[in-house]
Amino acid sequence: MNHSPADFKEIARRNTSDENLRRNVRRATSITLHKRVEVVAEISDWEGLRQQGHDIRKHSIQRLDFYLEELEKNLIANGVEVLWANDSAEACRLVEGILSDTGAKRIVKSKSMVTEEIGLNHYLESRGYDSVETDLGEYIVQLAGEMPSHITAPALHKSKEEIGKLFSDKLGIPYTSDPSQLTAHARTLLREKFLNAEIGISGANFLVAESGTILIVENEGNAALTTSLPGTHIVITGIEKVVPTLQDASILLKLLPRSATGQRMTSYVSFINGPKKQQDLDGPKRLVVILLDNGRSDIVSNPEMREALYCIRCGACMNVCPVYQTVGGHAYGSTYPGPIGAVLTPLLTSLPESKDLPFASSLCGACSDICPVKIDLHHLLLWHRAKAVETHLNTFSERIIIQLWNIGMKHPALYRFGSKVMRMMFRGKLSVPVWSDTRELPKLAPKPFHELWQSMK
Amino acid sequence: MSTRETILANIKHSLKGLPVANEPPKVHQQQQSMSVDELLDRFGREFKKIDCEVVRCKSHEEAVKTIYTMIDTSRQQKLMLSNDSLLVNNSYQEKLKISGANINILPYHLEVSSADVSVVVASYSIAETATVVLRSSPLQFRSLALLPETVFVIAIESQLYLSMGEVLAQIKDKAILEESSALIFVTGSSRTTDIEKTLVRGVHGPKRLVVVFVP
Fold it and tell me: What interface predicted TM-score (ipTM) does this complex get?
């Protein structure tokens, strides 16, 4: 990519003028939202289901230590190796350790936001490993040298013509913009990678504590192949993915596909219980789960922000967010874009590094309304904003203006005087830095309301 | 302190004193008593919504004939069948071999990537989402249902349930997870909408999935 969250304003300004990008993003998000409406309407008590999902995630996080220990015990009983990583660097080192144990170089990966978060692809490439993304959208952005712009639709920002040109330039195939033909090319190329891979790396959607089961949700079949064909399978997952029981998982599996892609169920849900049994023909001989913290236990320690960990990574909040639809995912400069990204990124990195993200919101609350596990996203953004102000991350001029406003609100006479001065300065035409560059603000009325009111009395 | 101990200690400290129930909240699953015909009807309707094919057969002989008629036998087709006892005991392999010309039955082997068609058996199926559950075992390896372009899934009517919750309760009661390294819940064919939200089937897995119900 690549930008950082600190570049948000600059990139957002640029992307707002990029009509192609806005058209691509708007088209993709509106198609998904439309499909979602249909499948949600089929559930007689969608709100009840959301509440169940919320309660399951809340309980899972409130007893996170207990369920992590139970998960670990059951994973080990199933023959899975369990490793723990404090941060990105440790997780990448653990992966490299497994690769050098096996002497393996050929790696296939299925879509995993956690591996983006820890920069795994870049780490492996810099050490000479051949690691290829197998999800079509991830494969496209990997070819393009970009980050995913959406958590379930990584190449949503690209048109078919742009993808056609990318395939032609990078793969040397004749140009086509036909999605079927482009997909067929990817199938042929990636099939060879699957069959020759030594290591498969995946994330996990859920980890079931009671049985030590790893759940992976997908449509393409690439995750099922990534976790079945290579001799070693490595799962890298955030610690917050644990859920207590299989029945809890079934509720979340009702919410996730409907919210993410507008489907009743995705084409494949793998319930992985361990490495292959002795007589099995396929499946990995070795299965390793890396449980990643990377700031999540610090979020647990914050009672106001803890519910950010309830997220099941559906991406619905992005689809419905007017800011995301306008600026696209890359503007956020982080692994997680959109409203959940604006909440998580300051927590996983730091607020000073990403201070513009919580302000990239109209606080319309559409994200909270659509969230399948009822995370109060827009209020979490407000919490970040309060912290930004407390720690003086806002500009000096903003602090002065707010102080003046505060004084004016408490002293009506001063307010009226200030109002007269403003009218003389702007002569009826309001101008606000940045805002007035792209919009016409309403004209000031000849008389303020309180004068009109007094004259009517 | 190890990383594990540090992470767990951090979490325990953060959650200390938080009043929370020991057990997870009770999951309310929709309970509906439906006949086999109603369940099959529901499965069929859901499957049609995702443009996949489902057939109900009265016998295994009829199932074999159905598979044969649904394959494009105008050209040579290589088939691989799972070694599941349902297929073996009902002689699917032998019957398909003699069904007609252009059917080449491959031996059950990991080299399935050369097969055009595979035939596998579902352990369970789910009506409300038109899902079949495939269990990994020495008799039915995982990629058998993932690599060929066309996959036929033989599903038993009596193992059809309404919801995933019911199937998972069955799986848990029968300790199936302990016997299998993986279960794959399959709902239709492999698909993607990653290019301008245009649906394309068969991106990595099968382009065509047919479910054949037998008594």
Answer: 0.96
